[in-house]
Automatic annotation (TrEMBL):
One of its GO terms (molecular function) is DNA binding. InterPro entries: Cro/C1-type_HTH (IPR001387), Lambda_DNA-bd_dom_sf (IPR010982). Residues 77-110 form a coiled coil. Residues 9-56 form the HTH cro/C1-type domain. The keyword tRNA processing does not apply. Keywords: Coiled coil. This is HTH cro/C1-type domain-containing protein. It comes from the Bacteria. The keyword Coiled coil applies.
Amino acid sequence: MSVHIGLMIWKEMKQKDISVSDIAAALEISKTKAQEMLNSATIDILTLVRVSEILNYNFFSYYESGKVFSKIELQEKHKLTAEVDRLKALLNEKNKALELQERLNKIQLSTISLLEKGQFR
């Protein structure tokens, strides 16, 4: 999938009525550099992040359907699923420990009660 990111940025700027001078000022670059960016099919990732923030638009979405992002997304999903499973298991273990602690507390209270009854007779 070939994306001319400069063109996509320019379209979003036009929709939001933002000029080249405005984007240049926001990015703290010259108007010439801003125009070069808009004419370019590629862009530095950090610049794209800043442009996305300035225009309040996710320009990375144009790339998300690509193979690289799909693989990364799938790997991240597997990692997150494994982490969720691990946390669920820890939660189950914690709940079991709490149940055992509660039973132990009841037994201790019962033992104390029996000892007190025996002591005060």
